[in-house]
């Protein structure tokens, strides 16, 4: 009896392992999506609902331009069915290096699971010359289009199309959810437009030029940046000059996103402008846990600051 | 004739219908008019719809055209290297004040990097490095991108430890720690093949295996022991010192030039010998005289844990084993390395922006026929603080501790302590000031003892990505 068991147990163990191996993927039928920023993760969840599992590589409080490359990101990308990114070289500091070692052809550039949501976006402020004299430039133009809710609809469409391409069997489901999400944004956009009327024509200073699309949507005008050039921190001479110009022009607003608060606070103090820490991504401030809440927060807090 | 008959027939029908129409009672005329009106309205509406469809089709065609152009422009802009590789150049220069020299400018390296995707399955890269000693192809490798296992082949930095895989200008301090130089040979450079498997675990866990002719400048079967490697470095330092002295002498007495030439001649002879040795090694490579025992075998287990949103821990253990280090029987060498890195990055940046504490510890065991078994232990540890003192650029402060034994005589050690400060005005431009104080028992080079000051300036032109391997 013992000898029979001894003979049989390797076979039983092998069978059990095989069953577990096959049952594992079968139980986890969800489409594994990795996004670069939390905004894309939120929108992907709205499109894919229970049929996707979504991870964002970065947190909303982090500066996307200096993301720490972590091996755990490689593990996520290695198993992903799709990667959703902003494109326009926003993620150039970390994503290409990760994709090189992820060993996952599905999500390699040009792969079926490589979803670039900038398709159809007309980039603002493309650089006049492609030289690093302009700092750490984005060759195709400003990549922070996530802050325009109208382009939010385009992001959602690109995600739905991208997921449908790789997973055609879910196309109707994704498109139905897209329709519902687009309808929700369509309902809210006029309200935001109305609430942001006070922002029309307001000049402001931003730490980095990351509010360009939001500003364009609501008529705000960028007066200058605290950075002396894209990706190059504030220099004393630049700040002195900027403060003088702000005083002369009576610029009422300073905003900063994922950057240290001391310089913006000081500039605001010296010029009498209101200073607002703004979330640039979902999760950028407490309670801002969806894309809709992100736009809500920006419209509400900036309008309040300007009204004061 | 038939046409005339047909016309007559249709005219007759029309007259009949008209008659019928006229014979309709007056009360029934209104619905007909309403129907006619409705028909006209529908026709008008249909015409408008057709116009709209045509307009939409025109717009769609235009949008498709724009999207197609946009896509092709995007592809070119995002990947200008589709036909040409990405090109980058890193220049690393220093001013050094050491025990053996009052002051010396060094062009430490100029590194030309090229990389591109070969096809959907692989990418290739090369780094051609020029130093005061000449130009060499430091790395030239092909790496698979679509296999479940990452395979790299060619000449490249083997996956041994952490900083042995860094080009020196990418290190967080000025010099490669001496422990790394003596134990591994500075960089884990090797010609061979390596594969890395990523386990499907909830955390990052990777296993690397590899086979190389040798790893680093000495871990292998080509007859160069580590002691000899260390001596070579020492000699380099001494040679620099001699050069300085020679230049002084040039200014004073021309007669000594002849001696210098003689010395140079000797140096050239030595170089010639070195080349002969290298040629011999190459011949060994090509001629197939190397047996499997003369190769170096690599294994590495590497894990990473996100402890929280702000803390992470990286640990690795590497083993390089050479069954025969020299062209004689009964000589073998094993090098074990353990590396640990703990990082913290606060969620809200202020003056304090992050902290890294890391270290590597090596145990080298070599069994030689004539000297018996020798075990040497050494390593380094460093701490690095990223700070934002409201000044332009990125700033960091650090402290490096290094303990480097002599491999053949492990009781003799070189200890050093190096505080340093780094300022990077941009991602592509960096200055670093480092003070090093050494306590040297080995006597390999005067430069290892006493106070040393380094000022390093590193710049990068064009595209420069060492990628995942050299992450901080």
Provide a compact summary of the structure.
With 308 residues, chain A is α/β, with parallel strands linked by helices. Chain A has helices at 2-27, 38-48, 71-78, 95-102, 149-166, 171-195, 212-218, 236-249, 262-271, 291-307; strands at residues 31-35, 52-56, 82-85, 114-116, 203-206, 221-225, 253-256, 274-277.
Please tell me about this protein's structure.
The complex is a heterodimer of chains A (308) and B (472). Chain A has 308 residues and is of the alpha/beta class. Chain A folds into two domains: 27-121 and 145-192, Nitrogenase molybdenum iron protein domain (Rossmann fold, 3-Layer(aba) Sandwich), CATH 3.40.50.1980; 196-307, 3-Layer(aba) Sandwich (Rossmann fold). Chain A has ten helices and eight strands. Chain A starts with a helix and ends with a helix. The model of chain A is unreliable at 19-27 (pLDDT under 50). Chain B is an alpha+beta fold. Chain B contains five helices and 17 strands. In chain B, a hairpin with a 7-residue loop joins strand 14 (394-405) and strand 15. Residues 220-287 of chain B have low confidence and may be disordered. Classes of the chains: A alpha/beta (308), B alpha+beta (472).
Quick tags:
heterodimer, A: 308 residues, alpha/beta, Rossmann fold, 2 domains, four-stranded parallel beta sheet, B: 472 residues, alpha+beta, 44% strand
SSE order and pairing:
The complex is a heterodimer of chains A (308) and B (472).
Chain A: H1 2-27, E1 31-35, H2 38-48, E2 52-56, H3 71-78, E3 82-85, H4 95-102, E4 114-116, H5 149-166, H6 171-195, E5 203-206, H7 212-218, E6 221-225, H8 236-249, E7 253-256, H9 262-271, E8 274-277, H10 291-307
Helix pairs in contact in A: 2-5, 3-4, 5-6
Chain B: H1 2-23, H2 29-78, E1 86-98, E2 101-119, E3 122-131, E4 134-144, E5 149-157, H3 178-183, E6 189-198, E7 204-215, E8 219-220, H4 226-252, H5 256-287, E9 296-306, E10 311-322, E11 332-344, E12 352-368, E13 372-387, E14 394-405, E15 413-426, E16 429-440, E17 450-462
Antiparallel strand pairs in B: 1-2, 1-17, 2-3, 3-4, 4-5, 5-6, 6-7, 7-8, 7-9, 9-10, 10-11, 11-12, 12-13, 13-14, 14-15, 15-16, 16-17
């Amino acid at each position: 009896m013992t000898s029979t068991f001894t003979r049989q147990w390797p076979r039983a163990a092998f069978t059990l392992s095989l069953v577990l191996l096959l049952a594992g993927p079968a139980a986890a039928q969800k489409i594994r999506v990795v996004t670069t920023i939390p905004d894309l993760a939120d929108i992907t969840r709205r499109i894919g609902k229970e049929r996707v599992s979504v991870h964002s590589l970065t947190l909303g409080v982090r500066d996307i331009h200096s993301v720490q490359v972590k091996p755990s990101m490689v593990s996520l990308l290695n198993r992903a069915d799709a990667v959703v990114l902003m494109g326009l070289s926003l993620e150039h500091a970390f994503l290409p290096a990760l994709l090189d070692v992820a060993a996952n052809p599905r999500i390699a550039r040009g792969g079926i699971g490589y979803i670039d949501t900038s398709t159809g976006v007309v980039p603002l402020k493309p650089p006049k010359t492609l030289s690093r004299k302009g700092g750490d430039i984005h060759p195709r133009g400003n990549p922070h289009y996530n802050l325009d809710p109208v382009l939010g609809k385009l992001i959602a469409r690109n995600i739905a199309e991208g997921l449908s391409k790789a997973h055609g069997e879910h196309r109707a489901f994704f498109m139905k959810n897209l329709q519902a999400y687009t309808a929700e944004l369509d309902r809210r956009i006029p309200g935001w437009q109305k609430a942001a009327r006070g922002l029309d024509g307001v000049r402001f200073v931003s730490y980095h030029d990351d509010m360009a699309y939001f500003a364009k949507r609501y008529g705000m005008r960028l007066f200058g940046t605290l950075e002396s050039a894209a990706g190059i921190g504030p220099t004393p001479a630049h700040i002195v000059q900027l403060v003088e110009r702000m005083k002369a022009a009576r610029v009422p607003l300073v905003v900063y996103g994922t950057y240290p608060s001391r310089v913006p606070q000081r500039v605001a103090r010296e010029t009498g402008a209101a200073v607002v820490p703004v979330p640039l991504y979902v999760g950028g401030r407490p309670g801002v846990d969806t894309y809709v809440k992100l736009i809500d927060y920006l419209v509400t807090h900036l309008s309040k600051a300007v009204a004061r | 004739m038939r046409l005339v008959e047909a016309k007559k027939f249709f005219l007759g029908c029309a007259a009949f219908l008209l008659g019928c129409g006229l014979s309709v009672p007056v009360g029934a005329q209104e619905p007909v008019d309403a129907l006619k009106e409705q028909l006209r309205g529908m026709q008008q509406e249909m015409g408008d719809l057709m116009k709209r469809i045509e307009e939409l089709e025109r717009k769609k065609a235009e949008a498709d055209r724009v999207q197609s152009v946009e896509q092709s422009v995007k592809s070119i802009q995002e990947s200008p290297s589709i036909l040409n590789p990405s090109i980058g150049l890193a220049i690393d220069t220093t001013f050094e004040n050491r025990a053996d020299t009052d002051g010396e400018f060094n062009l430490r390296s100029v590194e030309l990097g090229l990389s591109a995707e070969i096809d959907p399955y692989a990418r290739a890269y090369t780094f051609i490095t020029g130093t005061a000693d000449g130009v060499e192809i430091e790395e030239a490798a092909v790496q698979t991108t679509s296999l479940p296992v990452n395979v790299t082949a060619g000449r490249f930095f083997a996956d041994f430890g952490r900083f042995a895989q860094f080009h020196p200008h990418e290190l967080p301090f000025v010099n490669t720690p001496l422990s790394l130089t003596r134990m591994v040979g500075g960089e884990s450079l090797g010609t061979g093949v390596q594969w890395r498997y990523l386990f499907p675990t909830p955390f990052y866990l990777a296993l690397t295996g590899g086979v190389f002719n040798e790893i680093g400048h000495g871990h292998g079967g080509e007859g160069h022991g580590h002691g000899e490697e260390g001596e070579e470095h020492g000699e380099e330092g001494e040679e620099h010192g001699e050069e300085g002295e020679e230049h002084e002498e040039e200014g004073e007495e021309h007669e000594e030039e002849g001696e210098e030439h003689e010395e140079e001649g000797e140096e050239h002879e030595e170089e010639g010998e070195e080349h002969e040795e290298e040629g011999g090694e190459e011949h060994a490579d090509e001629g197939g005289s190397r047996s499997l025992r003369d190769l170096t075998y690599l294994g590495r287990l590497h894990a990473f844990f996100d402890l929280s949103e702000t803390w992470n821990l990286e640990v690795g253990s590497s083993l390089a084993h050479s069954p025969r280090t020299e062209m004689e029987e009964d000589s073998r060498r094993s090098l074990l390395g353990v590396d640990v890195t703990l990082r913290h990055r606060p969620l809200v940046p202020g003056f304090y922006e992050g902290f890294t504490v890391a270290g590597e510890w090596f145990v080298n065991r070599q069994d030689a026929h004539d000297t018996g078994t020798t075990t040497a232990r050494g390593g380094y540890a460093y701490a690095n603080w990223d700070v934002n003192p409201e000044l332009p650029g990125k700033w960091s402060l650090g402290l490096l501790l290094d303990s480097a034994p002599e491999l053949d005589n492990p009781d003799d050690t070189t200890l050093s302590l190096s505080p340093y400060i780094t300022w990077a005005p941009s991602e592509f431009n960096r200055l670093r000031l480092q003070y090093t104080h050494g306590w040297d028992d080995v006597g390999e080079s005067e430069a290892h003892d006493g106070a040393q000051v380094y000022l390093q300036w590193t710049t990068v032109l064009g595209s420069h990505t060492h990628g995942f391997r050299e992450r901080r």
